[in-house]
């Protein structure tokens, strides 16, 4: 970030949602409907402020807002600083923009819920945390937001807390995130210990200058620690298990937190710390492996899911994998590019799913849907556009970003995994194909064919459809708009994220682009055919290889595996420590000592006859004994 | 002089044995009174006249009268005779003998080199002088002790009117 | 020679003084009480002694006179009767204690006489003789010790009577004696303080000019009262109060043993009279007169002067006894603990202060 | 003159007798009296040593022993009385419970 | 010196209050005076104490690294015992914490129904003892206050506690006394050794902390004696089992004080006494202490997870949190030590608040079983909110106070003891596990109408109780600067002094060796004089311990 700082007022961006959260909760207790209005307004204000700032942001500069010194002790100094540079600007735009839309959407979606003042308060609190995360000028402020979004995620997943399973899902999300956070913290400690600061402005030159004579191992270590944090937040293997469960929350929450913004925080953090990661090729290789594996596993799992939100959840996990692939290749701007496009189309998909669920009276199983295109045309169209976007069909936004990812991977120049990159690419392309396939499957099952449910679906009201339309438009054209075709190139905008790894950029013809999107086309086409015409085919495939199908529908049994090797042993250990070690051994020793004293006391009590003459005899006998001992012996 | 001493010694031991052997505590008390007189006599042989007189006044005249008083107060109700316990008796006897013999032997050999007896006279004046000069603080403490003892005895022996015994 | 003198001293102290005093007191008790109560009293013994023998006529006359005065009755009749009477021992009493008690009651009293000087020193047989059996330099202490020991006789008598009356009497007696002993001890200390000696002879000598009563009247009063109580007589005869306890601690005694108690009691009266005389009334001193030499004549004179004073106090005690009504027991205790004891203490403090300021001695 | 050793041995014997009495007897008052025996034997040694070394401190000690004995008598007998009142017995073996 | 004895008045004001409490007019000779009056009076006393202690903060000069508000009066001159009190940055905040918590405890005493006067008097005496311990600069004075803490706590648990209160109270006292008796022996040995060298008997901490006549081995033994006492109080891992029992049985206020302040005394003792006095031994013991602390962190969290009783869970969480504090201190680094002290304050606030919350529940339902509750968030939203905030503070969410402390500790100790710290970081995860499990099981789910249907939300009085705690959670989380600024110079200086002393001791040979050799020779001479010295009687004579 060798740029110049401009002092600016940034704090209102984060402050509006915070204030909104408080007001929404306090005033919402009186009148529930106010909560949604306040929260949406707060979010919109925040968005406007972001726009204002971004508009004014000159190239190669960043805004800075030093609020106060948070921690100052010895050589540990942490300022509470907000910064808006290009990266933050992009993220802020996404967060506040998509966030505002989803707030708007929620006012309608949640309009019947008794606790919607809580809901909006949480949602605004989330906005606050997320903005802290992206605005934070150092890792510590980032970490505040990092944990904050985890908390809000926890609260929102468990929003319908009367269902204990939902609450448990929230807890799972928080705890898994916490594991990642622990890694993140260790990374911070390492940086503090060896570099002495977490401020990005100070950190980047310190690390890139190589003054920290610690070598690649240190960078790798720090990078891996931070990546653990990212894994937790962005649901990568092995910490991805919480995200599918997180669908317990209200659908707008899934859209905002578990698709568009929070889960991309890991990617953001990687991009933010990109200067460090590029110096740690081994770590990047790890990131690539994890990312590819995640993408593939999630994609395959999504194939067999029937719950529309679960499909979307796994698809999110898979797409996050794509983002990390880009980051792993050192193409951080690509990762951010995909974050943005993904935010558009995935939010749209989730909101669409929410619309469907809302319309079908909280039915989530796709097997009980179908034929909704007649009842909910807007939802259907927006959903369809987004499916095409995610499938990576040319000119939809997904194509632009995915193509960039593949391009970045093709230019893999990391000494590690160099010989494997070909195979990895094949796997990635296959995953992209699968993406198109399962997304089309969900579209077909939901909107085409005959209605299989028993409810009376209806189109959603305007506060829900407007965001859908906006997002669909963005999903369709956003990619093109950002890729430089319309005069604005995200790559150039985020030039600061290019750490020597200059990605080759080439304009391609439409035909070439269409050809390049062959994986998506194939997937869409295949799925369309299979689920509209050859309906027996999917079942046949699955029957062909029963273990595989079982594995897929069982989601690779990750939950069960973790339960068996981590959770339950730990629970058992806890019980063991309490019952056996604590009560049995330690307390047993203590009480045993007491019991021993007691018992020997009882034993000696026999000698305490209470008979005076007995005592006298003992007294005298002992005296005589000692006298004899002393004088005679 | 020596004859007096040995006579007194025999009387002393006999009366002491009598104290512990009489079944009737009154007899024991009488034997003890006699014993105390003999002790006073022994004090007199050691020229401790004041102490001898005090021995009679305090021990024989006050303490033992109190004991007798209590004995008589209770004697009507003291019907139970203590059964003889050969075990205790044997043990006590052995211990006592061992004690006496061991220490006796030790004394016998230990004080041969003691200086010849002085011609100290324990007159009232002599004792008083020491008592009121060097020992004036213990003396005052002793008076406090007695005061406390009086109060304690009164409190202990008073019949409890307030709290009816259960 | 020494032994002879000692025996003579004992004879003087025991027979001449103690027994005579006891006898005299008995007589005064019998006849005096009659006088006080306006009755004739013992006058029958020897009242009709007649003789034809001229030589014996004066004797008979003397006997009649004596009989009329009750002397014969007191000295002979009572004694003979007591000696001849059956020595009754109640059933189930410890005989030894029962027999021992009277002598224990008397023994210390007579022993106490041993330390009392009876006359001024005189020269005889080539040496200066003091009419005092045992010339202890701590005579007062010895007296005090003996006084406190005399409780045993009473206590044992009461206990060995196997009789509730006697036991109660004994309890009363011991409690009374112990209680009054405190005031007595402190008063004696006052006296010792004033005279600056424990030697009774020295005390008498100290009163050559002025009798002790003149400058310590309160001490005298206290000691006199205490003495009355210690003798368990007068208004203090709770232990033997005949209207309550038959005869108190000697209810179960008769005959000779009873007589011994009787004797002891009067010997005690005499002893106290002796003590008071010596402590406060100048012993053998005569006001405004100093014995010119230590010739034995003067010793005899002094002895009789002493006796005169003693007799006065004996009579005084007996008169009081027959005059005043008996205390109640709580009154007795109150007097001892709440009046005499604090009073004697204050008295002691007063004289100690006086002594310190150089007022006396 | 009688040597001090004889006084000591006499006191020792008397002390032993007292101890034996304390152990053997069960009547609290007799036990008490046996303790007096022991105290007296010690007093005897005090006075004997006092004489031996021409020092009055021993006699002073005896004096204080007597004071303590007097206090002990007052309190001890009062205790015995109250024990008797509570349990109608002054046998030490009957008072073995430490409470009534 | 002639100025107003502010520190003493703070220390003794509660004690005076306790005495006055007993002079309160009652109705009849034996009845309690009206409990409202008693409560109001105690409230006033504690509030005045708090205000006075705020004056302390106001008058405290953070740049002055020595003791401030010092009062030094001769007390027992023949034993070198002085009444010496003073305050530095470390004790300042613990004093403030104590005075801050006490009004809250008094306010929360409404649930105490029997013998209110005795309860509050005990609390006030306890406060005096705790404050005294914190400001004492004389070992003897320290020990007296240290032990004085036990008695009122014993009564608070034993009289106003739950079903097994006697067991818990006894266990608490025996445990603690066991340690402190060893400490007393250690104190006497130290004073004796000082006397051996300087010929002066003194219990003054400042003199003893400059004493350099101990051999390393002596230091090790003495440190062990001191550390055991303090470790039991903290409590560090294997000595912690008194804590759950005491907490579970203690009344709410007792738990708050116990967790809020008393546990800190252990670590405070380690800071104030054990480390400055025995710097070399402290260095040797550091890995063990750190190890135990880390075990405590993980173990406490694991066991807390398994608990079925809310209070017990919170109690075990204390074990875990105090583990952090100990780790932070033994890492001996400005950042971590400051974090450790900061965390002590945090723990006092958040765990104190949690105990108060449990008390609120207990007052209404008279059970602490987790399984008895569930779905309360729907019935008592404000309570649920408070519970959530303090839970989050407890699991160290950023912008709450807990985070600052935990972060400073871990960041600091990572520089000194990276291995231990990495394990301790696991506690961060486990903390979330057990606290959120607790929160989930009590607050979330379907409400059992039969059991919890009649629950009422926090009353106004309770809200007032929680408000200051709530405010502090955020103030200390968002703007810790005033606290850290006051702490920093003291801690820097403290660490510098200890390190310098350590270096100085290491470089110089123990000066007392000559003395010791002479002693040994003298002892041998004595033993050779008497033929009979080989007998058992000789063994009865306590020999002077040979070094």
Provide a brief overview of the structure.
The complex is a heteropentamer of chains A (633), B (166), C (361), D (100) and E (547). Chain A is mainly alpha-helical and 633 residues long.
Which key terms come to mind for this protein?
heteropentamer; B: 166 residues; mainly alpha; Four Helix Bundle (Hemerythrin (Met), subunit A); 6 helices; globular; D: 100 residues; Helix Hairpins; 3 helices; 78% helix
Into how many domains do the coordinates of chain D divide? 1
The arrangement of helices and strands of chain C along the chain is HHHHEEHHHHHHHHHH
Helix content of chain C: 55-70%
**H and E string of chain D:** HHH
Lay out the secondary structure:
The complex is a heteropentamer of chains A (633), B (166), C (361), D (100) and E (547).
Chain B: H1 2-21, H2 25-45, H3 49-75, H4 86-110, H5 124-133, H6 136-157
Helix pairs in contact in B: 1-2, 2-3
Chain C: H1 2-36, H2 57-69, H3 71-84, H4 95-113, E1 122-124, E2 127-129, H5 139-149, H6 151-160, H7 164-195, H8 200-206, H9 212-215, H10 217-230, H11 242-245, H12 255-280, H13 296-323, H14 329-356
Helix pairs in contact in C: 1-12, 1-13, 3-12, 4-5, 4-6, 4-12, 5-7, 6-7, 7-10, 7-14, 10-12, 10-14, 12-13
Chain E: H1 6-22, H2 35-59, E1 68-76, E2 81-87, H3 89-107, H4 116-135, H5 139-148, H6 150-160, H7 165-198, H8 205-208, H9 216-233, H10 242-249, H11 252-277, H12 279-305, H13 310-331, H14 334-365, H15 376-379, H16 381-394, H17 401-416, H18 418-443, H19 449-452, H20 460-478, H21 481-507, H22 513-529, H23 536-540
Antiparallel strand pairs in E: 1-2
Description of the structure:
The complex is a heteropentamer of chains A (633), B (166), C (361), D (100) and E (547). Chain B has 166 residues and is mainly alpha-helical. Among the domains of chain B are: 1-76, Up-down Bundle (Four Helix Bundle (Hemerythrin (Met), subunit A)), CATH 1.20.120.1200; 123-157. Chain B has helices at residues 2-21, 25-45, 49-75, 86-110, 124-133, 136-157. In chain B, α1 runs antiparallel to α2 (25-45) and α2 runs antiparallel to α3. Chain D has one domain (4-87): Helix Hairpins (Orthogonal Bundle), CATH 1.10.287.3510. Chain D has helices at 4-24, 28-53, 57-87. In chain D, α1 (4-24) packs antiparallel against α2 and α2 runs antiparallel to α3. Chain D is elongated. Chain E has 547 residues and is mainly α. Chain E has helices spanning 6-22, 35-59, 89-107, 116-135, 139-148, 150-160, 165-198, 205-208, 216-233, 242-249, 252-277, 279-305, 310-331, 334-365, 376-379, 381-394, 401-416, 418-443, 449-452, 460-478, 481-507, 513-529, 536-540; strands at 68-76, 81-87. Chain E has one domain (6-504). Chains in contact: A-B, A-D, A-E, B-C, B-D. At the B-D interface, α1, α2, α3, α4 and α5 of B face α1, α2 and α3 of D.
């Amino acid at each position: 970030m060798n740029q110049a700082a401009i002092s600016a007022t940034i704090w209102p961006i984060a402050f509006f949602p915070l204030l909104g959260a408080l007001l929404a909760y306090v005033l919402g207790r009186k009148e529930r409907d106010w909560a949604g209005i306040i929260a949406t307004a707060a979010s919109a204000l925040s968005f406007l402020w972001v726009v204002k700032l971004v508009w004014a942001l000159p190239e190669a500069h960043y805004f800075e807002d030093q609020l106060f010194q948070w921690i100052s002790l010895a050589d540990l100094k942490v300022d509470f600083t907000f910064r808006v540079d290009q990266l933050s600007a992009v993220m802020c735009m996404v967060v506040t923009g998509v966030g505002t839309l989803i707030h708007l959407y929620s006012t309608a979606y949640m309009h019947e819920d008794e606790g919607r003042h809580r809901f909006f308060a949480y949602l605004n609190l989330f906005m606050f945390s997320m903005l802290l995360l992206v605005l934070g000028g150092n890792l510590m402020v980032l970490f505040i937001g990092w944990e904050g979004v985890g908390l809000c995620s926890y609260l929102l997943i468990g929003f319908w807390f009367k269902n204990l399973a939902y609450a448990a899902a929230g807890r799972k999300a928080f705890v898994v995130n916490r594991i990642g956070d622990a890694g993140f913290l260790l990374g911070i400690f390492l940086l503090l210990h060896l570099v002495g600061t977490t401020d990005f402005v100070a950190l980047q030159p310190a690390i890139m200058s190589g003054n920290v004579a610690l070598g690649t191992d240190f960078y790798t270590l720090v990078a891996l620690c931070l990546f653990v944090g990212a894994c937790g937040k962005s649901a990568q293997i092995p910490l991805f298990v919480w995200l599918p469960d997180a669908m317990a929350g209200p659908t707008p929450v899934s859209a905002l937190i578990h698709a568009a913004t929070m889960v991309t925080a890991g990617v953001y953090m990687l991009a933010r710390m990109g200067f460090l990661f590029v110096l740690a090729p081994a770590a990047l290789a790890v990131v690539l492996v994890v990312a590819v594996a995640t993408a593939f596993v999630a994609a395959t799992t999504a194939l067999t899911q029937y719950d529309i939100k679960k499909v979307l959840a796994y698809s999110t996990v898979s797409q996050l994998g794509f983002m990390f692939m880009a980051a792993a290749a050192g193409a951080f701007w690509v990762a951010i590019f995909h974050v943005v496009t993904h935010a558009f189309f995935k939010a749209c998909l989730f909101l669409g799913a929410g619309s469907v669920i809302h319309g079908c009276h909280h039915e989530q199983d796709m097997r009980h849907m179908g034929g909704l295109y007649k009842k909910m045309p807007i939802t259907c169209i927006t959903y369809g556009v987004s499916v095409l976007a995610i499938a990576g069909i040319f000119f939809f936004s997904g194509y632009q970003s995915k193509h960039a990812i593949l391009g970045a991977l093709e230019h893999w120049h990391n000494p590690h995994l160099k010989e494997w990159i070909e195979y990895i690419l094949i796997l990635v392309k296959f995953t992209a194909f699968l993406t198109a396939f399962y997304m089309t499957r969900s579209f077909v099952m939901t909107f085409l064919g005959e209605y299989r449910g028993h409810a009376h679906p209806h189109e959603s009201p305007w506060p829900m459809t407007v965001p859908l339309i906006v997002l669909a438009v963005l999903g369709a054209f956003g990619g093109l708009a950002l890729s430089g075709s319309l005069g604005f190139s995200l790559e150039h905008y985020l030039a600061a994220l290019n750490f020597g790894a200059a990605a080759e950029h080439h304009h391609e013809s439409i035909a070439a682009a269409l050809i390049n999107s062959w994986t998506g086309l194939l997937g869409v086409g295949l799925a369309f055919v299979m689920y509209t015409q050859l309906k027996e085919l999917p079942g046949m495939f699955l029957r062909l290889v029963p273990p595989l199908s079982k594995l897929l529908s069982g989601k690779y049994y990750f939950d069960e595996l973790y339960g068996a090797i981590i959770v339950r042993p730990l629970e058992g250990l806890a019980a063991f420590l309490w019952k056996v070690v604590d009560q049995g051994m330690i307390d047993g020793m203590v009480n045993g000592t007491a019991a021993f004293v007691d018992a020997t006391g009882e034993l000696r009590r026999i000698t305490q006859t209470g008979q005076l003459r007995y005592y006298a005899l003992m007294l005298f006998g002992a005296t005589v004994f000692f006298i004899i001992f002393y004088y005679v012996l | 002089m020596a004859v007096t001493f040995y006579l007194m010694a025999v009387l002393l031991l006999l009366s002491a044995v009598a104290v512990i052997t009489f079944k009737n505590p009154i007899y024991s008390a009488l034997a003890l009174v006699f014993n105390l007189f003999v002790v006073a006599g022994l004090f007199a042989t050691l020229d401790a006249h004041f102490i001898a007189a005090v021995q009679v006044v305090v021990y024989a005249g006050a303490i033992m009268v109190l004991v007798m008083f209590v004995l008589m107060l209770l004697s009507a109700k003291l019907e139970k005779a203590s059964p003889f316990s050969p075990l205790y008796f044997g043990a006590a006897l052995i211990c006592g003998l061992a004690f006496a013999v061991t220490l006796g032997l030790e004394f016998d050999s230990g004080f041969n080199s003691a200086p010849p007896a002085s011609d100290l006279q324990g007159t009232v004046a002599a004792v008083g002088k020491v008592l009121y000069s060097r020992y004036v603080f213990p003396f005052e403490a002793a008076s406090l002790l007695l005061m406390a003892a009086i109060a304690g005895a009164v409190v202990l022996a008073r019949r409890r009117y307030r709290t009816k015994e259960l | 020679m020494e032994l002879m003198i000692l025996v003579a001293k004992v004879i003087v102290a025991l027979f001449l003084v103690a027994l005579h005093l006891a006898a005299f007191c008995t007589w005064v008790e019998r006849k005096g009480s009659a006088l006080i109560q306006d009755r004739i009293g013992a006058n029958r013994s020897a009242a009709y002694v007649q003789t034809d023998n001229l030589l014996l006529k004066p004797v008979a006359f003397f006997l009649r006179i004596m009989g009329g005065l009750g002397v014969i009755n007191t000295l002979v009749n009572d004694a003979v009767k007591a000696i001849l009477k059956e020595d009754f021992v109640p059933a189930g009493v410890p005989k030894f204690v029962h027999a021992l008690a009277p002598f224990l009651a008397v023994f210390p009293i007579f022993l106490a006489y041993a330390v009392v000087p009876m006359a001024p020193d005189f020269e005889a047989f080539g040496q200066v003789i003091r009419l005092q059996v045992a010339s202890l330099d701590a005579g007062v202490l010895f007296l005090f010790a003996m006084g406190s020991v005399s409780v045993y006789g009473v206590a044992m008598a009461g206990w060995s009577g196997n009789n509730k009356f006697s036991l109660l009497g004994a309890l009363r007696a011991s409690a009374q004696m112990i209680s009054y002993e405190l005031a007595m001890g402190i008063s004696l200390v006052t006296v010792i303080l004033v005279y600056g000696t424990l030697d009774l002879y020295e005390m008498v000598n100290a009163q050559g000019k002025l009798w002790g009563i003149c400058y310590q009247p309160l001490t005298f009063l206290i000691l006199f009262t205490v003495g009355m109580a210690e003798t368990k007589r007068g208004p203090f005869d709770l232990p033997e109060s005949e209207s309550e306890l038959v005869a108190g601690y000697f209810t179960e005694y008769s005959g000779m043993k009873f007589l011994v108690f009787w004797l002891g009691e009067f010997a005690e009266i005499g002893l106290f009279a002796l003590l008071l005389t010596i402590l406060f009334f100048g012993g053998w001193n005569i006001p405004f007169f100093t014995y010119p030499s230590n010739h034995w004549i003067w010793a005899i004179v002094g002895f009789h002067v002493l006796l005169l004073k003693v007799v006065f106090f004996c009579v005084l005690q007996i008169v009081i006894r027959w005059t005043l009504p008996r205390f109640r027991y709580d009154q007795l205790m109150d007097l001892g603990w709440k009046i005499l004891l604090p009073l004697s203490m204050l008295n002691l403090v007063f004289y100690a202060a006086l002594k310190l300021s150089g007022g006396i001695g | 003159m009688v040597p001090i050793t004889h006084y000591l041995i006499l006191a020792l014997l008397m002390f032993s007798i007292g101890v034996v009495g304390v152990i053997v007897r069960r009547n609290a008052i007799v036990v008490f009296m046996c303790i007096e025996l022991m105290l007296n034997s010690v007093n005897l040694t005090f006075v004997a040593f006092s004489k031996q070394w021409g020092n009055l401190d021993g006699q002073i000690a005896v004096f204080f022993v007597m004071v303590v004995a007097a206090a002990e008598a007052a309190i001890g007998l009062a205790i015995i009385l109250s024990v008797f009142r509570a349990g109608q017995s002054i046998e030490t073996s009957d008072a073995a419970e430490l409470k009534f | 010196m002639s100025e107003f004895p502010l520190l003493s008045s703070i220390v003794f004001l509660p004690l005076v209050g306790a005495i006055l409490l007993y002079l309160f007019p009652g109705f009849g000779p034996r009845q309690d005076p009206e409990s409202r009056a008693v409560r109001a009076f105690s409230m006033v006393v504690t509030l005045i104490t708090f205000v006075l202690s705020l004056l302390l903060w106001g008058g405290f000069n953070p740049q002055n690294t020595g003791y401030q508000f010092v009062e030094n009066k001769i007390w027992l001159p023949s034993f070198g015992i002085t009444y010496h009190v003073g305050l530095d940055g470390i004790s300042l905040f613990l004093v403030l914490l104590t005075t801050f918590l006490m009004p809250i405890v008094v306010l929360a005493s409404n649930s105490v129904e029997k013998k209110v006067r005795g309860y509050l008097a005990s609390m006030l005496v306890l406060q005096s003892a705790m404050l005294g311990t914190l400001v004492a600069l004389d070992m003897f004075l320290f020990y007296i206050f240290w032990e004085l803490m036990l008695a009122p706590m014993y009564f608070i648990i034993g009289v106003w506690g739950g079903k097994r209160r006697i067991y818990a109270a006894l266990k608490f006292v025996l445990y603690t006394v066991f340690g402190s008796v060893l400490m007393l022996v250690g104190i006497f040995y130290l004073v004796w050794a000082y006397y051996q060298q300087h010929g002066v008997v003194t219990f003054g901490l400042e003199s003893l902390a400059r004493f350099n006549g101990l051999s390393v081995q002596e230091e090790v033994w003495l440190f062990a004696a001191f550390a055991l006492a303090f470790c039991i109080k903290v409590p560090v891992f294997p000595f912690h089992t008194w804590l759950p029992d005491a907490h579970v049985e203690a009344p709410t206020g007792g738990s708050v004080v116990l967790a809020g302040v008393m546990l800190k005394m252990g670590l405070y003792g380690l800071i104030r006494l054990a480390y400055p006095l025995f710097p070399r031994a402290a260095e040797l013991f550091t890995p063990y202490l750190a190890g135990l602390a880390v075990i405590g962190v993980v173990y406490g969290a694991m066991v807390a997870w398994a608990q079925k009783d809310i209070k017990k869970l919170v109690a075990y969480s204390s074990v875990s949190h105090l583990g952090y504090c100990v780790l932070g201190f033994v890492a001996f680094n400005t950042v971590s030590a400051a974090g450790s002290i900061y965390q002590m304050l945090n723990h006092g606030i958040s765990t104190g608040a949690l105990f108060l919350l449990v008390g609120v529940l207990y007052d209404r339902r008279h059970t602490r079983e987790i399984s008895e509750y569930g779905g309360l968030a729907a019935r008592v939203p404000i309570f649920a909110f408070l519970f959530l905030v303090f839970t989050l503070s407890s699991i160290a969410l950023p912008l709450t106070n807990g985070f600052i402390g935990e972060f400073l500790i871990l960041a600091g100790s990572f520089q000194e003891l990276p291995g231990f710290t990495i394990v301790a970081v696991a506690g961060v995860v486990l903390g979330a596990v057990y606290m959120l499990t607790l929160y989930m099981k009590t607050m979330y789910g379907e409400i059992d109408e039969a059991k919890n249907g009649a629950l009422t939300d926090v009353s106004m009085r309770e809200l007032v109780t929680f408000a200051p705690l709530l405010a502090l959670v955020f103030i200390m989380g968002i703007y810790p600067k005033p606290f850290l600024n006051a702490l920093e110079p003291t801690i820097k200086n403290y660490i510098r002094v200890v390190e310098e002393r350590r270096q100085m001791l290491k470089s110089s040979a123990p000066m007392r060796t000559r003395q010791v050799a002479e002693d040994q020779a003298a002892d041998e001479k004595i033993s050779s004089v008497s033929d009979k010295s080989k007998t058992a009687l000789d063994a009865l004579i306590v020999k002077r311990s040979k070094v």
